[in-house]
């Protein structure tokens, strides 16, 4: 049983339960479980890469290569998955690492108030907060300061882009990005386990 | 190759894997390894003649405990960093440089109390032997740690390399503290700490950039 942090925990996520179970079986050598796991990872990573490439206006043609690099990295480093650890952060950390590598290799220069890796963490966290039975998003949002709650609702629940949210609120795009980043960080600390095991 | 084909191939080629041991076990093994390396170094360079008397010397104890603390804390952070997706150990990541800075400031405070003659004595080139010895022990420790760290998957390889460098400095510092009988604060600050720090951080950065990437 994994330690639970305050508030909602990834233990309540069906994806987390399913994928961590498949991974444990795959580490033991179960090929069927591993294939199912990789197919699920592919689905989730495809969405993650679509969001990421769209956010940074990268050509979509590179996404398939990055996806395959991620699958290969997960395969070669599957021994680093600790069964006492959550699976989704592990998976996204590997995905993020490969995306950053791809951006650097292709010399994309991204000028932003928020560092590239933090921005990628935002995308992962936003994707985790799907309005479903797994997370009571509204309750989580109530814990945020007014400005962060307002902006996160616009960007996530209403699906506005950063520019659209900036126009609606009157804040600058830099301010919106930093506020989203801070809000996500605060929500991540509520959702994910923190501290050494 | 299409992604579907890749998935099939990876599944067909699947072999069971031995998960990486937990952080606690990794750190325990590395501490043992470090102590063995320090013991080997002392066998080669022999411990200082007045070692038994030094256990009551506060300056020597501070030096030893600082290097030991640096070694242990760095190993914990290094082991933690080998598992992708683990939460940041934010407080510990601040304590590590804080410990180094405190140690520097402590030595600086003692250096400020030295007179000119002792300052010149501390700058003597014989100190280079100490720097080399500490860097050598640290370098060997770094190589052993690197071999083990490569089995992990640090998503911040440069940072892990720098932490590895600090762990190596800790090991080298323990060895040189137990070997060198020179109590001049400037000698300690420069030849036991600053020079090996620069060397081993450089090595750590190179290791991180070139050998910890995957």
Report on the structure:
The complex is a heterodimer of chains A (197) and B (214). Chain A is mainly alpha-helical and 197 residues long. In chain A, 66% of the residues lie in helices and 0% in strands. Helices cover 76% and strands 0% of the residues of chain B. Chain B has helices spanning 3-12, 23-45, 51-54, 58-81, 90-111, 116-122, 127-149, 157-179, 185-211. Chain B is elongated. Chain B starts with a helix and ends with a helix. At the A-B interface, helix 2, helix 3 and helix 4 of A face helix 1 of B.
Number of helices of chain B: 9
Q: What overall form of chain A do the CA principal axes indicate?
A: globular
Whole-number mean pLDDT of chain B: 91
Structural class of chain B: mainly alpha
- Biggest sheet details of chain B: none
| Helix fraction bin of chain B | over 70%
Q: What value does the Rg of chain A take, in angstroms?
A: 17 Å
Q: Roughly how much helix do the residues of chain A carry, as a percent range?
A: 55-70%
Count of β-strands of chain A = 0
Q: How confident is the prediction overall: mean pLDDT of chain A?
A: 77
Unreliable stretches of chain B, pLDDT < 50, 5 or more residues?
A: none
Number of helices of chain A: 9
* Percent of sequence in beta strands of chain B: under 5%
Low-pLDDT windows of residues of chain A: 1-8, 130-135, 193-197
Number of strands of chain B: 0
Strand content of chain A: under 5%
Order of helices and strands of chain A: HHHHHHHHH
Q: Span from first to last CA of chain A?
A: 11 Å
What is the N-to-C order of secondary-structure elements of chain B (H for helix, E for strand)? HHHHHHHHH
Largest interface: A-B, 45 and 30 residues
Gyration radius over CA of chain B: 20 Å
